[in-house]
Amino acid sequence: MSPLNSNSFTNATIVRPEFFVISGFAGIPHANYYYVFLCFVYALSLLGNTFIMFVIYTDHRLHSPKYIAVFNLAMSDLCGSTTLVPQMIDTLLFKLHLISYEACLTNMFFVFWFLSVQSFTLAALSYDRFVAICFPLRYNEIVTNKSMLVITAILWIFAGLAILIGVIFISRISFCKSIVINSFFCDHGPIHLLACNDNTPSAVINWTHPVIILWLPVLFITGTYICIARALFKISEASERLKAMKTCTSHLILVSVFYLPICITYAMSSTIQLNTRIVNMSLATVLPPMLNPIIYSLKTEEFTESIKKRYRRNKFHIAVRNK
Description:
By secondary structure, the protein is mainly α. Helices cover 74% and strands 3% of the residues. The chain contains 10 helices and 3 strands. The protein has helices at residues 31-58, 65-94, 101-134, 139-142, 145-170, 188-192, 200-233, 238-267, 274-299, 301-322, and strands at 19-22, 98-100, 180-181. Strands 2-1-3 form a 3-stranded mixed sheet. Helix 2 packs antiparallel against helix 9, helix 3 packs antiparallel against helix 5 and helix 3 runs parallel beside helix 7. Residues 5-11 have low confidence and may be disordered.
């Protein structure tokens, strides 16, 4: 029985296939090496982000607005990696390119939801740095734990609703031609191109979602750092200026690691070969969750001090027990 005809019609105009075929990595040479690399990346992502969340949760000195946002970023990184990487490993290792229709839409929702939350959280962190440097005397009044918790909750809800709308419109598409998705997961863009009925709403969403999820946060972060740069130039003492700049270093690295590969690939998607685009996008989505904990562990002074104090305390307790 053909997969295009195996499911009953939901109404007279919509045809839903039993499954899709994810073609990503099918024609990429030496894919087994990439599988080993993905396993390594996923293991580091799990360990690193779990460690970040554990340290922030257990150290009351890190219960601040900034680290609420960092905890939120680690959680979205952890969830995003778990949603995306095991499915990619499954495709590479067992050559299981088939995914059911319902599982595909579910995969689409969660991958884009967590990706959106990562992007919005980086914008929230830039807002935190903007207020801390441009309005230092009012920082504790403007940015509180409660306000940051409200901001992060709104980010999760807004991102979830935006992606849910896109998935609902995909469910109104008829697939009576191809069921092959030219991507490494259930990607919205390649799927909506498979429609054989009017897919105008999905086409509009495919254009607006990158603007909302990527380009607007990039513009917001750029604007905040322009204001931060202007504020830094007004600081007369070089030591104070350097100290203020150091508080932004880790965030700027996170922003570069997350946005540059994705934005460049999106901007050049029409000019690069399909397999190259798939590999670039897969790297752009799986590497930041691995790198973010490393960057924060090494480049953030408060976090580094928390780790050192925890290590010395544990070492002391072990020494006492051994006596």
